[in-house]
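EI: anyone free to look at a 280-residue chain?
SC: sure, send it
EI:
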Amino acid sequence: MDKLSVSLIDVGWGDSIFIEAGTDGQKPRYGLIDSNDQENLCSSFIFLKRYFERGEVRLPEDKPVFDFIVLTHFHADHGDGLKKIMREFGTKAFWYPKTSHPGGLSELIRFANRSDNVGFHEAVNSGKDFPPFGPATGRFLWPPYSQGNENIDAANENNNSVVLALRLGQVTFLLTGDAEGEVWEKIGTLPADTRFFKVPHHGSVNGTFLGPAKATPWVDKCPGQALLGISSHIRPFEHPHQKVVDLFRNLNRTVFRTDEHHHVMVETDGGRVWVKYSHI
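SC: here you go
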């Protein structure tokens, strides 16, 4: 049986998403999106270390462990832990968006250039193909191609966030970074077979609502059968916001939150979709 799973790791604040794809009897393939680990709080790293130990991944023999690691955008709650994870586990590919504020991203790129634990790295755009990932396929929905800086949002780094659609059989999982309302107007239609949608920007108001009229562009486009997942950011920002929570409740949408359900794993065999969650 083929399988694709996406786990929203309960990191306390920010994002870290662990991805696994595989076929029974074959070695699993692994991916990661973001990590907010700091020197004294390594929630993502600890989760991954324990998971790989249970799965009998051998280090350093099995490096690189990851097929890919993605930085959606360089904010501390998404990127601070990636260098340690790439150094310890290795990755065949490291992807990130272009930015007009390179800051800490430059340090990650310098590390990728000199490290034997990173196969290659490059900036993402929606015109580039996503390589095979076990039985799953993928495509970048955002950001668009930018020869220079013409498609980079210099005012709002969230809107440079990578949006990735992963598909197995008749099921698509949509992983969104912190892309806000303006992005969802520009992306256009969403895959009709979307069955899991990671709510943008931790369930903040500006991740869901747009403009004075409080339009809800991604909500309007997201198929009603899709489960919603929130990587919560309770302190200090109180995400998800109560207005967003109320919207989902009024629409009878099924929502899983890391502050309530902790590690949230959504799995599919290409037809069915099921959810597990735990503290461990």
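EI: The CA atoms of residues 130 and 139 lie 5 Å apart.
SC: 👍
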